Amino acid sequence: MSLHHPSSRLLEGRCKLKEFEVILHRLHILHLKDLIRRNSLGLDVEILGLSLLWPICIYCSMKIDADTHYIDYLFLGDYVDRGQHSLESITLLLALKIEYPHNIHLIRGNHEATDINALFGFRAECIERMGEQGGIWAWHRINRLFNWLPLTTLMEKKVICMHGGIGHSINHVEQIENLQRPITMETGAIVLMDLLWSDPTENDSVEGLRPNARGPGLVTFGLVIEFCNNNDLQLIVRAHECVMDGFERFAQGHLITLFSATNYYGTTNNTGAILVLGQDLVVVPKLIHPLPPAFHSPETSPERHIEDTWMQVLLR
Questions:
Q1: Which of 133, 142, 245, 294 is the most buried (most CB within 10 A)?
Q2: How many CA atoms lie within 13 A of 93 on its CB side?
Q3: Contact 119, 310 (CB under 8 A)
């Protein structure tokens, strides 16, 4: 995509969501094809387990406001299905990945899958915004791109990041690096369900694996310290769950759940956070405070309830 094209404003952090909508209408399907093609070429040479060095900023959603020339930015997945601007979000990330290929890093979340984002709105949004033919094409091709996204990132060989967590299928980091892409639910269902869907147990005292209420075949995990010891790791960073303070420590500080979106679904009034990983692997959370909520937050996460229902239906 030419940086002189009007859609180059997608690369400017000053763009607001209302402006995104105008820009996207001017983004021709040919420009989207070029974004997908150029990212496909780049992802083809990235390994499934990325390896990064500090300084790094870790995000669960999108807000870039610093120097992309000397800081790496890592996003932990779920780039679509999170509101009415999925196309703007993924298009911006693809453009950023082309402009800063060595500094912008995307790993896969559980919504970067055809079965999921067909149900949660991304497919419908593509059709609504680009017409039946163009929308279906864009949805299929973007999902094909998702199948090539790395599943984890290893930082300084001591901190591993993934969207969900660990489960039955992965005991050693090398197993992830040896997986063959593209990875779909047909070719790698167990690994994807473990790395993209797992949650930590609610209590540090619970060890091993337990059934996950999200659906059959999914697990909660308590073997964090064991996994870290077996792989010479200090920390696991994951996303996937809304936590009220933006981040939450688990397993004596060896695992952090990170959630960057504030006031999730407009009802939760949660704080968001990013993590900055600096020298000597010092992790510094940066909080993003929400605007006042429109009404009181529910006792349970809307995402958790909806995804519970989806998984129970799909995995029967």
A1: 142
A2: 27
A3: yes
* Number of helices followed by number of strands (H, E) in the chain: 9, 14
Decide: 104 and 113 in contact? Cβ < 8 Å.
Answer: no
Q: Among 111, 172, 254, 296, which one carries the catalytic annotation?
A: 111
Closest Cα to residue 71, out of 289, 275, 258? Answer: 275
DSSP string, 12-40: -TT--HHHHHHHHHHS-HHHHHHHHHHHH
Angle at the Cα of 43 (from 38 to 48), degrees rounded to 5? 175
Residue 229: phi and psi, rounded to 5, are: -65, -40
Question: What pLDDT digit, counting tens, does each position of 142-198 carry?
Answer: 999 999 999 999 988 999 999 999 888 888 999 888 888 888 888 778 888 889 988
Q: Identify the pLDDT of residue 10.
A: 40
Q: Is-catalytic flag, 305? A: no
Bridge partners, residue 159, by sequence: 155, 235
Here the tokens at position 163 are 């969207």
* Residue positions counted in the chain: 316
Query: In angstroms, rounded to a whole number, what is the distance separating the alpha carbons of residues 13 and 33?
Result: 23
SS3 state at 114: helix
Which class for 217: exposed (0-12), middle (13-18), buried (19 or more C-beta within 10 A)? middle
| 77 vs 189: CA distance, rounded Å | 17
DSSP 159-219: EEE-SS---SS-SSHHHHHTPPSS--HHHHHHHHHHHHH-EE-SSTT--SEEE-TT-TT-E
Per the listing, tokens 């930590």 go with 200
Most confident of 36-50, 79-93, 153-167: 153-167
Tokens encoding 226? 């064991």
**Is 208 in contact with 230 (CB distance < 8 Å)?**
no
